[in-house]
Design a protein that fits this description.
This protein is 59% helix and 10% strand. It is of the alpha+beta class.
């Protein structure tokens, strides 16, 4: 069996492959794992083992691309074992994700309100223009006694 690939994780979130002496991406690490290689990731400064964190990042990135956060069997496991499964992950990262989502949603909502404001002005002007172009309007006004007779009807 091959030795583990030793990666160093730097504060700027970059991963350095010590065996190849080069920086690697999460996708490259995932490809190596798919080939059957084992990885160990250590924080470059503290030397703490952060392998589980990096593997979780890889899984989340793949889930993001597939538009599925977690598969149903894993969700069942989390529910079944409650506090024993993924507690730290959900405490740290789910909160960050929700906060980022809410910030993004707020900015999109604000932009949408601005577009609606511009649209209301255009909509009002359009309604006034359409009302003036409505061919039935002059007929309705004539029945109500509020318009002059049509030019075609003056010869009768």
């Amino acid at each position: 069996m091959e030795e583990k690939i030793l990666l160093k994780k730097y504060a700027n979130r970059r991963l350095y492959d010590t065996g190849q002496s080069k920086y690697v991406t999460l996708n490259q690490v995932a490809a190596q794992i798919r080939e059957g290689r084992q990885v160990e990731v250590r924080d470059a400064k503290t030397k703490e083992d952060v392998t589980a964190f990096i593997l979780t990042q890889i899984i989340l990135e793949e889930a993001k691309r597939k538009n599925v956060l977690l598969p149903a069997p894993l969700l069942h496991t989390i529910i079944q074992y409650g506090d024993n499964a993924l507690v730290e992950f959900f405490d740290k990262h789910l909160q960050e994700t929700i906060s980022a989502y809410l910030t993004y949603k707020s900015s999109v909502d604000e932009q949408f309100k601005q577009w609606l404001g511009m649209g209301m002005d255009i909509s009002r002007m359009t309604q006034e223009g359409v009302a003036q172009m409505n061919p039935l309007q002059s007929i309705l006004k004539s029945f109500a006694g509020g318009s002059e007779p049509d030019k075609d009807n003056t010869s009768k």
